[in-house]
Design goal:
7 strands; 313 residues; seven-stranded parallel sheet; globular
């Protein structure tokens, strides 16, 4: 897809924390800059992997502002701003617009289950009207987590009512047929479809999708960049196979502590293991098995990071 604002590989960035579980902005900015230097075109901050819903409104603003202050360009960040509260969603989205972000990722209002399409249309209409022009709105389809899927009819209504405002979708459903249906229905209107599953990157690009926004990109973005650049051929196929293998390793244990463990061991920085409840760090046994799973893919040591032997010194 041409002219996609976040076309390519986007990491759903881990939110680094201090031992007392406050945002660790220095450590997070360092990781963000490494991602941009190692295959990422953009950064999905404060999403599911970034534990956004474990942070308060003021903390979420602090994180975005802190990353910008530390040299992470606002233009490459797509912060998650969707909340159960309409007022909070609007406040965070306007804040992101004022700080120079080009787009935000919107969860549906997820507390009340089984809302109608009419109810969701009313909600997102209010968001669009209250936020105003100047920032692209991306829908976040993750029904396993939110229990609120986006129907094709709803997306079509939003595109018709707000031309150029609802710019795309991150589909973390894992249902490729659903992603393909979105592309077939709306790509001709410039609607950007991003897979939330690494194993589909090469396929979605071939179908007319825009790229990926994935958790495993915290560690496998090097290979995602090859797939995005090459698309087809032996090198792209080998890189896509690595994406599939590392995705499997990333989901072999709970995803967020799994990725924190991989980055902690790869950098030798124990601080990456800090995590807010209800999530917990991996046990020693889990951590060793997690690392072994990543090693078995051939991805370790991660390009650009200290090898495990050095990290252990």
């Amino acid at each position: 897809m041409k002219n996609a604002l976040f076309g390519g590989v986007n990491a759903a960035v881990l939110t680094a924390m201090t031992p007392d579980l406050a945002p660790d902005l220095d450590r997070m900015a360092k990781h963000a800059k490494w991602l941009l230097a190692n295959g990422c075109n953009g950064l999905g901050v404060l999403g599911t992997t970034g534990e956004a819903n474990s942070f308060g409104l003021h903390e979420r603003k602090q994180i975005l502002e802190g990353l910008i202050a530390r040299g992470v360009p606002a233009s490459v960040m797509m912060p998650g701003t969707g909340c159960a509260s309409l007022a909070d969603t609007v406040e965070l989205t306007i804040h992101a617009k004022e700080k120079g972000c080009r787009g935000v990722l919107l969860l549906p209002p997820f507390y009340y289950k089984a809302p109608s399409d009419d109810g969701l249309f009313a909600y997102f209409s209010e968001v669009a009207k209250r936020v105003g022009p100047g920032i692209a709105l991306y829908l976040y389809n993750f029904p396993q987590q939110s229990a609120v899927p986006f129907s094709l009819d709803l997306i079509g209504r939003l595109l018709a009512a707000f031309p150029g405002v609802f710019r795309g979708v991150k589909d973390s459903s894992g249902d490729y047929a659903n992603m393909k249906a979105m592309i077939d229905a709306f790509a001709s209107q410039g609607f950007e479809v991003y897979t939330g599953s690494d194993e589909y990157l090469q396929k979605i690009l071939a179908e007319g999708g825009a790229g990926c926004i994935t958790a495993a990109s915290n560690a496998n973005s090097h290979w995602g960049a090859i797939v995005y650049a090459k698309r087809t051929g032996p090198e792209a196929d080998a890189a896509q196979a690595m994406l599939a293998a590392t995705r499997k390793a990333a989901t072999s244990f709970p995803l967020i502590p799994n990725l924190r463990e991989v980055i902690a061991r790869s950098t030798g920085d124990d601080g990456y293991r800090n995590i807010r409840p209800p999530h917990l760090p991996l046990s020693k046994e889990q951590a060793d098995k997690c690392w072994a799973a990543w090693e078995a893919t051939g991805a370790i040591p991660l390009p650009g990071l200290a090898p495990a032997a050095q990290a252990a010194e």
